[in-house]
């Protein structure tokens, strides 16, 4: 009788553990993921992969990501990379900006709407009908998404005193003239 009671208690505890695990998974499955959440996650993944492909390996490991500024209602993709002093120029920053955009849009139809097409597809799951429900979603996303590339001094250079940072930012479809370039110490 004691064996049966022990076996019953063990099965009861094991059943409760399995039910709790199932409840956690079920709860996670029921949480809504918005297309905004999906897009931010996709942008994070894309910018990390793009930076690893476009930033030279000898320079330094880039820090990448994306964030939403709710006050300005803008999304910023960022790449920050330590670069030697002689390479920290506005032209080099603009070239890296263009290389990153070119890599992000490499699988899009070519033309003036490539960046908008990329953003549209970043914010929708594959085979999702959402894009057809609204007009000009890609163009509207271009207005609120900014890419920011920052060249920073390496850690050992940063301790030497005044070292300049170069930052260039703009829309994904920005021309060289439309980029905002800041050189700061």
Can you walk through the features of this model?
The structure is a single chain. The chain has helices at residues 2-30, 35-54, 90-104, 114-122, 137-144, 155-158; strands spanning 63-69, 74-82, 145-152, 165-170, 180-184. With 185 residues, the protein is an alpha+beta fold. The chain folds into two domains: 1-31; 35-184, no CATH class. It has a five-stranded mixed beta sheet. Helix 2 (35-54) packs across helix 3 (90-104). The radius of gyration is 24 Å and the shape is globular. It starts with a helix and ends with a strand.
What order do the helices and strands come in, and which of them pair?
Layout: H1 2-30, H2 35-54, E1 63-69, E2 74-82, H3 90-104, H4 114-122, H5 137-144, E3 145-152, H6 155-158, E4 165-170, E5 180-184
Parallel strand pairs: 2-3
Antiparallel strand pairs: 1-2, 3-4, 4-5
Helix pairs in contact: 2-3, 4-5
